[in-house]
Design brief:
279 residues; alpha/beta; six-stranded mixed beta sheet; three-stranded mixed beta sheet; 11 helices; globular
């Protein structure tokens, strides 16, 4: 089976984005978190059972979960680092998604970073200390969890969504954003290649010219532009409105005949899965 790690042409495991960072790149960051850091990864089309990985309590606490009325809300909660993702946070997110897929009491999943910031990408220091070297690396497991997910996934994006924060949205069923959202994929700017099937999905969604503005030039989009370009479904004035709308949308999905919803969603994603795996 082919695993899509970055949008590469060979069959080897390519470098994660942070592997290519030099001291010159790191010097540009005023803290241990680079706002333009990101990771690579994805997965096959078939659902698989994955055992949860034990986490240190401190990092586990950085991913909040709320299960209410059939809706599981996962919140990245590291505001002091602009919700930058560590390996432990990737693992925790993946574990929760795999578990939710097996939980009959969960019908819809919302992923968010709260009312002010979605995620600034990867925590550079953490990733440089523990570089991914195999397919069970945390970032790869998260991509596998997302692409295997059998239940609707809604993204509520308030504020910055850099690198993985934007490429993740291409795999969500619905994307809600605030007007001050900032979507950016600065891969080429950092000497890297796009991740998570972005080189396939973005040109198909936006057209070649607009995709090139995002992937080749690293341009950013605010929430209104993301809506106009088709990367988001709805735009809201503030984070509270965005999060409330995500909950309402989840309840609408829950009210649908669930087996029909599941099969229809699977048919929609099935068509492009072979190309996604081959990218």
């Amino acid at each position: 089976m082919n695993l899509l790690l970055v949008d590469s042409l060979d069959g080897t495991i390519p470098r994660m984005g942070v592997w290519s960072f030099s001291r010159r790149h790191m010097a540009k960051s005023i803290s241990s978190v680079d706002p333009f850091c990101h990771s690579c990864g994805v997965s096959p089309a078939l659902k698989v059972a994955v055992e949860p990985t034990l986490q240190e309590p401190a990092m586990t606490d950085l991913i909040k979960q709320e299960h209410r009325d059939g809706v599981l809300t996962l919140t990245i909660d590291r505001p002091d680092k602009l919700n930058a993702l560590t390996n432990s946070m990737y693992t925790r997110l993946a574990d929760l998604l795999f578990a939710a897929d097996e939980d009959d009491s969960v019908g819809v999943i919302i992923v968010t970073g709260g009312p002010t910031c979605f995620t600034s990408g990867n925590d550079l220091v953490d990733f440089l200390q523990d570089r991914p070297t195999h397919l069970d690396s945390p970032a790869f497991r998260l991509m596998r969890a997302v692409t295997h997910l059998q239940k609707p996934l809604i993204a509520a994006v308030c504020g910055a969504a850099i690198g993985i924060g934007t490429t993740l949205l291409l795999h969500c069923d619905q994307v809600l954003v605030t007007r001050n959202a900032k979507l950016r994929m600065p891969f080429v700017n950092l000497g890297l290649c796009p991740e998570f099937g972005a080189s396939l999905l973005l040109p198909r969604l936006l057209g070649q010219a607009r995709a090139a503005r995002l992937l080749l030039l690293g341009d950013s989009l605010d929430g209104s532009e993301a809506l106009t370009w088709g990367l988001a479904n709805e735009v809201f004035d503030d984070g509270a409105q965005c999060l409330a709308a995500a909950t309402r949308l989840a309840q609408r999905l829950l009210a649908m005949p669930q087996e029909s919803l599941r099969q229809s969603r699977q048919l929609m994603k099935q068509a492009g899965m072979a190309e996604l795996q081959a990218t």
